[in-house]
Amino acid sequence: MTTYNKTFRLLASKLSLQDEENVLRKAAELERLLQTKTIAGSNITDNSKIVICLDLAANMYGVDLDLKTAVKYSGLKQPTYLNSRKILENLLELNDDKMSISFLCISLQCTEVQALAEDILEEYKKKSKMDIDLNLPQYVCMAVYHACRINKVKITKSKVIEKSRLKPSQWSKLDAEWSKFVNDNFASVKKTKGRPRKEVIEDANNGIENNTSIKEEPMDQIEPYDVWKKRILEEAYKELIAMEEVEKAQNVMPIRRSPRKTPQKTSPYKTPIKGKGIRLLFPRN
Questions:
Q1: What is the DSSP track for the chain?
Q2: Whole-angstrom Cα distance, residue 100 to residue 126?
Q3: 118-155, pLDDT tens digit by residue?
Q4: Does any domain span residue 44?
C-alpha cells in the first residue's frame, strides 16, 4: 500500500476520498509530476495543489466530489479555484482542448499576426531558462498580444487577459517580462514611422539622380512690343469711350428736389380756442 504524507491524507479525508485508493494514487502521481513543472505568475499554495490534484484524480475515475468542500479546503475563492484548476489541468496535459495561436488569432480577428506570434513563442522557449509548456494559455496569449503590439493591430486587451486565465496583477507581471524580451529580440520587426521617401531614379548614362516628383514647367512666352503696344492702346480707348458715356448720362438726368412740407395753420401741441375769454376748468352747464 502506498504511503502518503500527513497533509495529503488529511485533505483526502476532508474530501471523503480516504477510501478511494485509485484516486489517492493518481492524485499523488499528479502532485509529483506537478513539482517538475513551473507555473509562471501563479500563487497557488501547496495545499491548493493537493486539493486540485485530488479533484482532478476523482474526476478521472468518476468519483463524486463536492466542489464547495474542495474550494473551502483549498483556501481559494471559487473563481480563483476554477481558474487554478484549469491551469493545472493544462499544465499536466489532462485535456485535449489546448489553446493554440491559430485559434486565438481567429477568435480575436487578427490572423495577420499569426506567423509573428509563433516566432515570438518559439524564440521565448529557446531563450527561457525554464522548461515551459508553450500550450499554456498565458504564453499563447502573450505571444499574440505582443505580435499585435508590434504590428499595431488593435485588439481588446480585456479579452486577452480573460483567455489567459490570469489575474490582472499576474498578467501585468508576466507582461513586463515579455515586453522586455520582445523589445530586445524583435525590435527590427517594428514598422518604421514617417512618410515613405520619394522615389529616386538614377540615370544610367550620366549618373544624375532625378526626382520623379519634380516636373518641368513651361516658360511663359514673351509678347512682342508691337503687339503689346496695340493691345494697351485699344484697352485705353475703350475705357475712355465708356467714361464719356457715363458723363453724358449724368448731365441729362434731371435733379430731383425734395418736396416741401405743407405749413400747418395751427400747432399740433395747442388746443384751438373757439371763443374769446378765459377758459374755465369747470365749465358751467
A1: -----HHHHHHHHHTT-TT-HHHHHHHHHHHHHHHTS--TT----HHHHHHHHHHHHHHHTT----HHHHHHHHTS-HHHHHHHHHHHHHHTT--S----HHHHHHHHT-GGGHHHHHHHHHHHHHH-SS---TTSHHHHHHHHHHHHHHHT----HHHHHHHHT--HHHHHHHHHHHHHHHHHHSGGGSPPPSPPPPPEEE-TTT--EEETT--PPPPPPPPPHHHHHHHHHHHHHHHHHHHHHHHHHHHHSPPPPPPPPPPPSS-TTSPPP-SSSPPPSS---
A2: 18
A3: 999 988 888 877 767 776 788 899 999 999 999 999 99
A4: yes
Q: What is the pTM of this model?
A: 0.40
Residue 12 and residue 67 share a domain = yes
Q: Which of 171, 189, 207 is the last residue of a domain?
A: 189
Q: How far apart are CA 138 and CA 163, in angstroms?
A: 8
Give the range of the structural domain holding residue 106, as residue numbers without chain letter: 101-189
- Say whether both 129 and 175 belong to one domain: yes
Q: How large is the average pLDDT for residues 166-185?
A: 89
71 Cβ neighbours under 8 A, 6+ residues apart = 77, 78, 81
| 68 occurs within a structural domain | yes
Query: What's the CA gap between 80 and 166, in Å, rounded?
Result: 9
Q: Which residues on neighbouring strands pair with residue 143, listed in sequence order?
A: none
**Are residues 79 and 33 located together in one domain of the fold?**
yes
The tally of domains found in the chain comes to 2
* CATH, residue 71: 1.10.472.10
Grid coordinates belonging to 108: 480575436
Q: Are residues 59 and 108 in the same domain?
A: no
DSSP states of 163-183: HHT--HHHHHHHHHHHHHHHH
**Grid coordinates in use for 41?**
505568475
Do residue 80 and residue 118 come from a single domain? no
Q: Mark whether 78 and 25 lie in a shared domain.
A: yes
